[in-house]
Amino acid sequence: GDYIWIEPVSRREFDVAIGARVVSAEGRRIQVQDDDSQEQWLTPERRIKAMHPTSVQGVEDMISLGDLHEAGILRNLLIRYNENLIYTYTGSILVAVNPYQILPIYTVDQIKLYRGKKIGELPPHIFAIGDSCYNNMRRFKQNQCIVISGESGAGKTESTKLILQYLAAISGKHSWIEQQILEANPILEAFGNAKTIRNDNSSRFGKYIDIHFTKEGVIEGACIEQYLLEKSRIVSQGADERNYHVFYCMLAGMTREERQKLELTDASQYKYLTGGGSITCEGRDDAREFADIRSAMKVLMFSDSEVWEILKILAAILHMGNVKFKGKVIDNLDASEIPDTTFLVRVARFLGVDVRAVKEAFTTRTIFAQGETVVSHLSHSQATDVRDAFVKGIYGRLFIWIVRKVNAAIFKPKATHRTSIGVLDIFGFENFKTNSFEQFCINYANENLQQFFVQHIFKLEQEEYNSENINWQHIEFVDNQDTLDLIAIKQLNIMALIDEESKFPKGTDQTMLQKLHKQQSHHKQYLKPKSDLNASFGINHFAGVVFYDTRGFLEKNRDTFSADLLQLIHNTSNKFLQHLFVEDIGMGSETRKRAPTLSAQFKKSLDMLMKTLLSCQPFFIRCIKPNEFKKPMLFDRELCCRQLRYSGMMETIRIRRAGYPIRHTFREFVERYRFLINGCPPAHKVDCHAATSKICHQVLGRADYQMGHTKVFLKDAHDLFLEQERDRVLTKKITILQRCVRGWYYRRRVGTPLSEQL
């Protein structure tokens, strides 16, 4: 009946001890059943050790684990996950394991239950994080942010939606603006999410939703920032993946008349939708979701004509993908033609351009040199690339327009006393068989978020403890600053070298890779492949080593749009399409050449995001993906161990448990808790250090709190106890006041003389 830890036999990186229950004993051997339900006999040579009682049943807050090691954390998440308890605390940090099923724990009753409760009063829940964030904003009048992180498929997007639903529910008014903010999600997901091998609803862009509140705590508006849409997905998808949801939803959900007008059939007929060999997504009803998208667009003030223009653009994109090029030779040079113009005619009609003009823009290139115009022919592959670049350019700008349209509906000019809660849902760390420019940018973003987490949880805590002269044990942690320096900070960093090569007309992916190897091969976080034929480079990220295939890097980074295609847009009769490109059309050719690259734009927007996060009081939700198969009740120990290790969870538990996560300046503490002892004057009339010490001594007794130079440092449990005591004492005092006032009022009504009342 005893529970034990069995040390692993193998030396694989993510093998840790596994829990087991002793079933029987026979001589010096014992029979056990481990956490994977496997029975085995153990001999005395096998290393085992006793399990702490806290690890047998599991705990809600992992700070209280007696077995403070990776195996203990892993088992705690496992036994809770097996009971559909997907949330676990580490102090005020929430660990959320994706259940891959719908659980009945997000009802109106649950919202009411968690409202006004401190973290730790009730079982762990994402609503508790939302409530604490909201109450902190109101209590301290400071902007808050919730950073939701984890690998692709870990459940970040769903967590974001739950936080937004909770904030909308508790902020009070249930107004139109709250509904509009919630309805932004179906639209953004339709145009920016897709089925991948790891996630049926993967966000292929990052978003930061900043929700604005009045001084009374009522939602008054919001603003959405978007980051780095994965445009390559529009023209090609990996095996068993889909294009963006909106295409499949549109084809499944439009009326027959609409499909006829746009000359569309079903998804299986379009090259851009079948590249991954998957046009359906288990558990998704594309037709029903299209109805939700249209409904959401109405709520967010999209006019019927705007919706129709969007559908025309999407239809044109699908028809464009079916345009087929045929190679030929003109004057001994490779060229191309479009033998069947059926789809080209449809493209021209929906985009409002001349058929011949589209054909020429796809198959020829116009070069302006020394005052002369030279027209050259494009080969089959070059024509395909131009067509695909056109599609990516249109869809990318359409997505930006949609985000702006949503913001126009939900954003209100800044009020004097506005505070905000920002929710960050950004792409998780990615490592596929083939990793390209998109994964490089995504993983750079995740390095920044990990550094923010490291700074907040570790560096800031250590610095504050030291500056306040708090007695505590120094804890080592993994700092990824070195990797950030390599990618984007130190001189001749990877991004700078990629940008430099992107600006050279003759720069190629090969010349870029050579420069990277030459400049960075000595860096300990940079990995050069053994073979020179390998067109990749590697980076040792916080979450593991990733090799990036450099083929296509420069083209994606340049993100260029040829002059021929821009001329096509300039001459279109489609005003909506022209509006999407208004900034490009107004830019001269020389200005376009100097326009910032995609990586430079992304770095700038990411820097602004990090600046915003650093100005807020953060909360963290660490999402964990339990398996690679998107299946419920399946817990891959090795996969989860890797995510826990690279999320910094071990160090987090150690520092939180050893430290004091709650702290108040003496003045703040006295103002808030002076009612808990008799005869304590207001903060401006008393020595706040002495008063704080007196309050703690009388209320907390010999508990483990510490007095710093300017602040008092408390455990989570102390803060909870103080708040409960404050509520109890104030309620008691208010009751006395009410009794006295009511007594005075009724005595006055019956005519008791004033002297007797007194």
TrEMBL record:
<dbReference type="GO" id="GO:0005524">
    <property type="term" value="F:ATP binding"/>
</dbReference>
<dbReference type="InterPro" id="IPR036106">
    <property type="entry name" value="MYSc_Myo7"/>
</dbReference>
<feature type="domain" description="Myosin motor">
    <location>
        <begin position="57"/>
        <end position="727"/>
    </location>
</feature>
<dbReference type="InterPro" id="IPR051724">
    <property type="entry name" value="Actin_motor_Myosin"/>
</dbReference>
<dbReference type="GO" id="GO:0016459">
    <property type="term" value="C:myosin complex"/>
</dbReference>
<dbReference type="GO" id="GO:0005737">
    <property type="term" value="C:cytoplasm"/>
</dbReference>
<dbReference type="GO" id="GO:0003779">
    <property type="term" value="F:actin binding"/>
</dbReference>
<dbReference type="GO" id="GO:0048513">
    <property type="term" value="P:animal organ development"/>
</dbReference>
<dbReference type="Pfam" id="PF24123">
    <property type="entry name" value="Myosin_VII_N"/>
</dbReference>
<dbReference type="InterPro" id="IPR057130">
    <property type="entry name" value="Myosin_VII_N"/>
</dbReference>
<comment type="similarity">
    <text>Belongs to the TRAFAC class myosin-kinesin ATPase superfamily. Myosin family.</text>
</comment>
<keyword id="KW-0518">Myosin</keyword>
<keyword id="KW-0963">Cytoplasm</keyword>
<dbReference type="InterPro" id="IPR027417">
    <property type="entry name" value="P-loop_NTPase"/>
</dbReference>
<keyword id="KW-0067">ATP-binding</keyword>
<dbReference type="Pfam" id="PF00063">
    <property type="entry name" value="Myosin_head"/>
</dbReference>
<protein>
    <recommendedName>
        <fullName>Myosin motor domain-containing protein</fullName>
    </recommendedName>
</protein>
<dbReference type="GO" id="GO:0003774">
    <property type="term" value="F:cytoskeletal motor activity"/>
</dbReference>
<feature type="binding site">
    <location>
        <begin position="150"/>
        <end position="157"/>
    </location>
    <ligand>
        <name>ATP</name>
    </ligand>
</feature>
<keyword id="KW-0547">Nucleotide-binding</keyword>
<dbReference type="GO" id="GO:0048731">
    <property type="term" value="P:system development"/>
</dbReference>
<keyword id="KW-0505">Motor protein</keyword>
<dbReference type="InterPro" id="IPR001609">
    <property type="entry name" value="Myosin_head_motor_dom-like"/>
</dbReference>
<feature type="region of interest" description="Actin-binding">
    <location>
        <begin position="606"/>
        <end position="628"/>
    </location>
</feature>
<dbReference type="InterPro" id="IPR036961">
    <property type="entry name" value="Kinesin_motor_dom_sf"/>
</dbReference>
<keyword id="KW-0009">Actin-binding</keyword>
<dbReference type="GO" id="GO:0009888">
    <property type="term" value="P:tissue development"/>
</dbReference>
